[in-house]
């Protein structure tokens, strides 16, 4: 069948999570951690085998290529067995381990989406500061390893803005092209690794005006964990970071006035303090922790970064303004009109 008659495969690979699915669907088919668990025992065997024993060395190498897991399965095997090591192919929004990235794509295609890559076009997302060499590696793997018939690589921020305009157009009663088709706006993309403020004009990124923000979703997680521990909550050491991440995703929000929020929590603690219950993985003993100020102090580091790090004090709103002011003067008015928030760390409820 002609690939154009099948839906394109979409991979949005981020530092923390990857979204896998097909074009045309309203949501991804899978959202999984961007990690790979590799069996170290086979890798060690391959390295230890003498060059004379080529067959044993070859077999160990083959098994190392076959025995790996990705996503939640990788985390599960890493925790339950000492044979596997955990690898993250993407750091700070950039692919730094192409062999591991290829394995991740392999499992994504054949084990998760269960499709034949030769029968689908592929759409991959990329960082706004990615290098041409990085895109060349993407194309090389996709065309030479998976033999895809067609590939398009787009900046995540442009796709996010495009989706926002498409949504606005679907809500508009009037089918007016001029109001939602210019694809101009500022995208605030705060992922788990490399946040950026990206100005987009008529669908094109203004590369010279991109601003980087040093605090990401992983920093919010670290800050929530730090606050819980400083308050005396007993978090299991092996799962402390995972608990903080779940607390962030479940309970955190952005208040309109942080002082009023403190007063509300102090006046009626029973109403605003939440409880997180879980079971210790090693002992099976249930435990409960209280979640209080952490609910709104975690995301607050985007607006008061000095709370978390003394090395950076410029809040996110000022950086957005600086981004627009550095763009060409004839585009600034249009950029100020549209602000698009992208990635899960920007979706905190406002109270």
Description:
By secondary structure, the chain is an alpha+beta fold. It folds into 3 domains: 154 residues, ATPase, nucleotide binding domain (Nucleotidyltransferase, domain 5), CATH 3.30.420.40; 97 residues, ATPase, nucleotide binding domain (Nucleotidyltransferase, domain 5); 86 residues, Actin, Chain A, domain 4. The chain contains 14 helices and 19 strands. The strands form 6 sheets. A 5-stranded mixed sheet has the order 3-2-1-9-10. Strands 11, 12, 13, 14 and 18 form a 5-stranded mixed sheet that branches. A 3-stranded antiparallel sheet has the order 5-4-6, sandwiched between helices. Strand 16 and strand 17 form a beta hairpin. Helix 8 packs across helix 9. The longest helix has 16 residues. It is globular, with a radius of gyration of 23 Å.
Q: Main traits of this protein?
A:
351 residues; alpha+beta; Nucleotidyltransferase, domain 5; Actin, Chain A, domain 4; 3 domains; five-stranded mixed sheet; 21% strand
Provide a short characterization of the protein structure.
By secondary structure, the protein is of the alpha+beta class.
């Amino acid at each position: 069948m002609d690939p154009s008659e099948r839906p394109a495969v979409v991979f949005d690979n981020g530092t923390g999570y990857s979204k896998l699915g097909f074009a045309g669907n309203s949501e991804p088919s899978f959202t999984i951690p961007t990690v790979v668990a590799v069996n170290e025992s086979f890798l060690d065997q391959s390295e230890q085998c003498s060059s004379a024993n080529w067959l044993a060395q070859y077999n160990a190498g083959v098994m190392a290529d076959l025995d790996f897991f990705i996503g939640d399965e990788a985390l599960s095997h890493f925790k339950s067995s000492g044979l596997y090591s955990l690898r993250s192919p993407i750091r700070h929004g950039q692919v730094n381990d192409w062999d591991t990235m290829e394995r991740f794509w392999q499992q994504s295609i054949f084990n998760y989406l269960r499709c034949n890559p030769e029968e689908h076009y592929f759409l991959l997302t990329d960082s706004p500061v990615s290098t041409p060499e990085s895109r060349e590696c993407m194309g090389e793997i996709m065309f030479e390893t998976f033999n895809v018939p067609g590939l398009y690589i787009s900046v995540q921020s442009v796709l996010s803005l495009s989706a926002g305009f498409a949504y606005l157009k679907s809500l508009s009663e009037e089918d007016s092209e001029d109001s939602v088709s210019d694809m101009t706006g500022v995208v605030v993309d705060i992922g788990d690794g490399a946040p950026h403020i990206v100005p987009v004009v008529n669908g094109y990124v203004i590369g010279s005006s991109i601003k980087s923000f040093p605090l990401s979703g992983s920093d919010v997680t670290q800050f929530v964990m730090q606050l819980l521990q400083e308050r005396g909550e007993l978090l299991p050491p092996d799962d402390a970071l995972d608990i903080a991440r779940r607390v962030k995703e479940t309970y955190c929000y952005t208040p309109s006035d942080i002082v009023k929020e403190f007063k509300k929590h102090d006046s009626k603690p029973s109403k605003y303090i939440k409880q997180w219950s879980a079971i210790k993985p090693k002992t099976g003993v249930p435990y409960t922790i209280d979640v209080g100020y952490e609910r709104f102090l975690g995301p607050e580091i985007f607006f008061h970064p000095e709370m978390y790090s003394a090395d950076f004090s410029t809040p996110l709103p000022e950086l957005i303004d600086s981004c627009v002011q550095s763009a060409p003067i004839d585009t600034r008015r249009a950029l100020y009109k549209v602000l698009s928030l992208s990635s899960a760390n920007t979706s905190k409820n406002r109270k």
